[in-house]
Amino acid sequence: MNLHAFRNRLTKLFRIVKKEVLVVSFWIFVGTLCLWGFDEAGMLSRNSQIKEVVVDFPEVYQVWKKDEAVFVDGRSNAAFKRGHIPGAMSVPVGKVKKRLALLPEDKNTRLIVYCSSAECPIGYLLLRKLQRHGYTNVQIFHRGIEGWRQFGYPLQKTVQPSKESL
Amino acid sequence: MATIRIPVAKNSATIKRIAVTFVRIFTGIILLSAGMTKVADFSVFVTQVALYDIVPMPLVRIASYCILASEITLGSALILGYFSRGASILSVGLFGIFICVLTLALWRALPLDDCGCENILFDLFHWDADLSWKEVFIDLVLLVVCLFVASTDSGGYGIDSFVRKDTLSGGNYATDTNH
């Protein structure tokens, strides 16, 4: 095959490939718009739609006061130290396996997970991870720490050791 | 002695087309299963994208839509064998992005115990979806497979074989022997 024929073949190949890539890209764009529409219509999962596992005031405060559940904070260590529901355990959503030992051994223990606010998706991810590790009674306090603070309930801050004590 | 003539050339071209069809459909099933898993639990997937800390928070949801739409569209195109070359090339790009993101996450030692990349392979072989170099290797293999499919003119047997006429040789995909 001479150079001219090779160049023609390459040009034709490029033209065919460009057309196919553009057509498929167009369908991906259409698919993206469809997913956005479904999400806006509430057809894709969101925290607030998982009604059977969401717990809200006043029940969550009563449960906390009577110590009927273990509260699990899914936020980062730094956020946990700045203020958390008193008695809650810090289990950042990316460290569930490492922090499993902190959780109760009884898999039927009632666990209530929370993160920062109502639309924080971390709470739902943490719930699913805990369920995968065998915990059968997990709920989300979907208002999160912001909701707890807005209702005027107490927060606990982790005490940082002073430099003299180190 | 009678000579038996085995049409080797024709057989090898057919065998190659069957092999290409098989790997193309298998890759398509992997992509489509990954997409459908994410659709079923979209909120979890959005969180996993956010945890990689690459896309700014306001764009996390849009990035999630794009990834999901890409997986479902490319998976369907590869399974059906329609515009399979374009789908293969875009799949190469998609797997390339996954490899870069996973490599970056591993290099930064992000505290993630779930890569967010579950698909039918993980169910078949009972693999953990941990963030590890195994996921990078799997994506690299799939990238090479997509390159192989993209390098063939017809992409094996599929809708392209019967409908499309724009091959390099100028003939029909079904009769084109330039594989």
Provide the fold topology.
The complex is a heterodimer of chains A (166) and B (179).
Chain A: H1 3-40, H2 59-65, E1 70-73, H3 77-82, E2 89-90, H4 96-99, E3 111-114, H5 122-132, E4 138-140, H6 144-150
Parallel strand pairs in A: 1-2, 1-3, 3-4
Chain B: H1 8-40, H2 42-51, H3 60-80, H4 84-107, H5 120-125, H6 133-151, H7 159-163
Helix pairs in contact in B: 1-3, 1-6, 2-3, 3-4, 4-6
Strand content of chain A: 5-15%
Uncertain stretches of chain B: 168-179
Q: What would you call the structural class of chain B?
A: mainly alpha
> Mean of the pLDDT scores of chain A?
82
Using the alpha-carbon principal axes, give the shape of chain A: elongated
CATH homologous superfamily placement of the largest domain in chain A: Rhodanese-like domain
Please give the share of residues in helix of chain A. Answer: 40-55%
Q: Largest sheet of chain B, described in full?
A: none
Counting structural domains of chain B, the number is: 1
**Could you give the count of β-strands of chain A?**
4
Sketch the major β-sheet of chain A.
Answer: 4 strands, parallel
- Determine the N-to-C terminus distance of chain A: 78 Å
Which secondary-structure class do the elements of chain A indicate? alpha/beta
Distance between the termini of chain B: 35 Å
**Unreliable stretches of chain A:** 160-166
**Second-tier CATH architecture of the largest domain in chain A:** 3-Layer(aba) Sandwich
The oligomeric state of the chains shown is heterodimer
